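Hi,

I'm pasting everything inline rather than attaching a file, because the server keeps stripping attachments. The sequence lines come first, and each chain or strand is labelled.
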Amino acid sequence: MSVPFVVQARCGDARAGLLQTNHGPVETPVFMPVGTQATVKSLASGDLEALEVRIVLANTYHLAMRPGARLVRDLGGLHAFMAWPRAILTDSGGYQVFSQKGRRKIDDDGVTFHSHVDGSPQRLTPESAMAIQADLGSDIAMAFDECPPSDASRDVLCRAMERTTRWARRCVATTPAPGQLRFGIVQGGADLGLRAEHLAEIAGLSFDGVALGGLSVGEPPETMHAVVREIAPRMPAELPRYLMGVGTPADLLVAISSGIDMFDCVMPTRAARNGRLFVRGGHINIANAVHCIAALPIEEGCPCETCRRYSRAYLAHLFRVKEILYYRLATLHNLHHYLALVRGARRAIVEGRLPEYVVERGLAGAA
Amino acid sequence: MSVPFVVQARCGDARAGLLQTNHGPVETPVFMPVGTQATVKSLASGDLEALEVRIVLANTYHLAMRPGARLVRDLGGLHAFMAWPRAILTDSGGYQVFSQKGRRKIDDDGVTFHSHVDGSPQRLTPESAMAIQADLGSDIAMAFDECPPSDASRDVLCRAMERTTRWARRCVATTPAPGQLRFGIVQGGADLGLRAEHLAEIAGLSFDGVALGGLSVGEPPETMHAVVREIAPRMPAELPRYLMGVGTPADLLVAISSGIDMFDCVMPTRAARNGRLFVRGGHINIANAVHCIAALPIEEGCPCETCRRYSRAYLAHLFRVKEILYYRLATLHNLHHYLALVRGARRAIVEGRLPEYVVERGLAGAA
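And the predicted assembly:
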């Protein structure tokens, strides 16, 4: 198989790359909006196209529960199901299953847990997680890993690493959907030694990309930044590098500066629904009474569909009376903010001025 | 003032007309989507433009409660507030206030009631209802009327008519916003004699249009149809005729055939949110399990944004997992269905073939 990823430019540790998928090219660094249940909450696939999104994340666990991976396969796969012609990355379901503390049982073969929908007993193994992702037909499938909590002891971290490595071998031994790429996941908590050790193990397997998992799970941002700064530059240079579930705008610029290529996070979409709207260098809370009389947009000069047409006062009204339209308009703005931030970082890498870009965006303190 | 309405074609009692407003022309017959709280639920103003909507209805009572008419005025009026450059009709708030059975007190000067938001005491009079609508800056303001329940006695109906007439005189005596049209409302329940009597009174005042109120408030459809068939043809021929709060696709064709020009109803938007999706001659319920595996669209050949791109199976999934996107996609389809139905009726009137059109649409039984 030809190499689907090329690095086109570098700026310090940061890289600008191009990832070829079954459903088109993806320029990196890239932010992937989260479409847990085969929809980026409140947005249609046409909205995502208008935002120039090239890849979204969908959730293996949620889709396996509802509507079911076989049904999605029978309907032509996830792209056809959600009417999304561009790339899709599916997580392996591991993160959701391991989040069910006290309700799941891990053994060396896999995990037994309960459906959050009807409480029915369910089981995921490396083989079944990959089979579900093959049924969904995603462009990138993630290996099934064990994600320990942020306060896990060194012993727990080590056992999770060992199990994740054994499971990773089983994942690469399965048959993917035609053209489907597969990424391995590095665990090891905040321990730099363990991270480096596990990276070496995962990088030795035949994955098409490598991800950092088990970060942004409750540890302080500085801890996460330290791991990313230390580990990202040591990840295989020829493969795409993916930091899972991260993060704030500042987190993204730290990670991009350290050589991470791919991100997903519910932050822009979830924050939008909760009233937190990103502006350069910070955010506003639309629940604040001051916005009820503000004729200005969320951010002056922002070219997003929401800012071009609607005032803070209107958004504040929709938010207060809980109108459905609020969620879409807020999500459009926050996603635009994230996508523009990362695209701007890509341009800055190509132009050799990423450090200046971080300052311009008002995020120099954290980054 | 020049006459803002002209009848361009007739077919039996039915008319095709053109209504000029402060915010553009409106071809009639016309269906006005309901935007109670300054948004047609789940849709952005751009969505309405794409649906070729020319006029929406907004709710005086709800907007007076939140965000307040003075605030809307200070922000440049309702058009600027909701970023909607086309026409707006505001109801007078009477219907909502009179629906608060047991919680409101009517006297000859107006109505005292309680806010549904915080329970605070509120008062509406003909003068204040028109002042609020002037603050909102709608293109068409409705007179403040008393809307009796469908089971009201003849005495109650008569008292409501008399009060509505006195209030109508006070409404026309107020100062409208510049260019704002004002419509009177005919009451009289299902009593054809009372309806005719009240029509004569309201038609004698200097309104720019006449509406039938107090229908579709719980009476059988046949009763409502009988009133419309009898009264609509006797409404002033030179003014737009508006049937408030009606109705099903069959109701619309009955009323158009009888000479009604304007409609509003929550049915297409509310039914969409509840899973009822209109198709030619009927509807489907997306909650029905059979749709979970259906790759076909809501209606084959339907040119709406939803049917062009999404399957019933995807909509059924979104509905079951309560994803926000469902509400928008379903609303887009149902509104398209209503708008296309009424636009088709207009073309049929112009072409002198309205009765054939009613048969083609599969609604001959009711109409």
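The CA atoms of residues 50 and 214 of chain A lie 32 Å apart.

If the labels don't parse on your end, tell me and I'll reformat.
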